[in-house]
Amino acid sequence: MSTNTPKRILIGKVGLDGHDRGAKFLVRALRNAGYEVIYTGIRRTPEQIVRTAIDEDVDVIGLSLLSGAHNELFARVAQLIEEEQAEDIIMFAGGTIPDKDIPHLKSLGFRQVFTPGASLSEILSALKEELGGGE
Amino acid sequence: MADSMQEQFEKWKRETLAKSTARMPERPERTVTASGRDVDTLYVPKDMQDGAARETYLTQIGFPGEYPFTRGVQPAMYRSRFWTMRQYAGFADAEETNQRYRFLLENGQTGLSVAFDLPTQIGYDSDHALSSGEVGKVGVAIDTLADMEVLFDSIPLDKVSTSMTINAPAAVLLAMYVAVGAKQGVPPEKLTGTIQNDVLKEYIARGTYIFPPAPSLRLITNIFAYASKHLPRFNTISVSGYHIREAGSTATQEVSFTLADGIAYVEAARSAGLDIDKFAPRISFFFGAMTDVLEEVAKFRAARRLWARIMRERFGAKDPRSCMLRFHTQTCGFTLTAQQVDNNVVRVALQALAAVLGGTQSLHTNSRDEALALPTEEAVQVALRTQQVIAHESGVGHTVDPLAGSYYIEQLTDEIEAEARTYIKRIDEMGGMVSAIEQHYPQSEIEQSSYRYQQEIERGERVIVGVNRYATDEEVQPETLAISQEAVRRQIDRLGKARSERDGAAVTRALDALETGARGEDNLMPLIVDAVQAYASVGEICDRLRKVFGEYEESGV
Hints:
heterodimer; A: alpha/beta; 5 helices; B: alpha/beta; 2 domains; 21 helices; globular
């Protein structure tokens, strides 16, 4: 892939949760880091998230959820990605996620799970690693 | 020539304070310092000789319980009664939450605060497709009156005041609360509590909106009108800055956007023909408390003074109670860290101290484990004990507004008030808060502040102990609360049972009447009361209203 084409990232708020401070921060910070970022806005269904990700041809989906419904809703997103055979999209997750839930989410295909206190530089370096070089 | 300060002080004692102590006597505990020194109810600059300085004191600071209420809304504040200790709680289903409430009341909590789950807050029943995964997660699931009866089982509603964090469907949950009261033999006029009922901040910061602004404001004014007749002791709205702050605003923005929301509600109610002094005394507020203790104290004082002035100068309120900004405080959840969770106990103590020094009427203290999950019973107990230590051991409640007269506090109070006036003027110029929200103005102001704040943390300019400095590798997470699948099943079963046992024809009649009412202009509260009493569910009622009002959609970023 040409190094001139910025990688595309979808930041998605799945479920009914309205906590979007972290998501909005990331949208802006990732744009400043040179990525093309699409933000879904709050209260999207897994179906809407996956549809947008495919339509927008993104490289990465970053899901954010702080309501505690991550096990159910992130699983549904992963399932839809598989059904759509879109497994080339890299999935990241973030939110108030207890450590004990992380192995399950990783087994569903989430490459990284960011929990409260995760720094922007951690997220940027994980992206760089996954996307091979970054911007 | 104005009376000397000493004479003004004596007059306040004779008139304002005496009247208040006659109604609400002082607490029996001795109000002495740790060394045994007697503490007075109020300290004022008694020897202030300069006429101009005295005039400034009287107009800007004044006496507690008197306009502009800078020093507090009650003359004796915590000398007569501590703030209400009110822990926000709710999870799983009504049965489990009822047990948590009883635990809190047994531990000395003095009021209840209901956290509803997201489906309830957005008007979906527990068996709705969009409720999947969310039932009972951030609060208790309530579908029908049957759930509400279980939630308040063995809790006497004439003795306990209840705050309900419910906004878009506030009318429905309020109607259920009235119905539970009736079943306990408590008439509506004896019920005390608060519904949040503040939809504007949902568009700005919190996200649990259902309907567009115009019908939302209609529902809110319908509640104001209904409650002024039937629920004279209930706070019909809690205009909330907390979520604005949590979304990343500054202290000034929190005050500005909250009071601008308050102005929008007052204007909507006046346009609906309500008399200001009939509904304004039941307007209450809700703010966050950050760890920056002194700025927070100034913020609370500035908000109190500015609201009083807006009510009198802009709206011509005559009743002093219309000018009183009474508020609940919650310590800011955003400040809790998942790292070194015990540090959160200290943060919360400082934040709670700020709220008390700022004159809060009620307080929720967060639990140390809330960056990870809903709090465990043990963590909640520490949070409640934090308030009790401040109340009984710190002595800060012995005297009213103890930080008044501090050069720093008074200057900050003045600055925050002046900055908030500028923001409110700007919002007025945009056509008011609804129009400003549609133009994304408060949202983008908050986003900028939030971005700046987080960048400061990322760069290490703002130190968060245990996160970007003094970090350690310990990281064994404490046990957290998990919501059982069994509770979710129990909830869906109870909904099914309520649906099968109720009179289906009566439900349809009530819902039809509501839909017809929504198309017209009548007050919807009585129709919602009828529907709730027929055991119509939150989802069914909201669906009928959605049909007529449509739904709000957030515009993209």
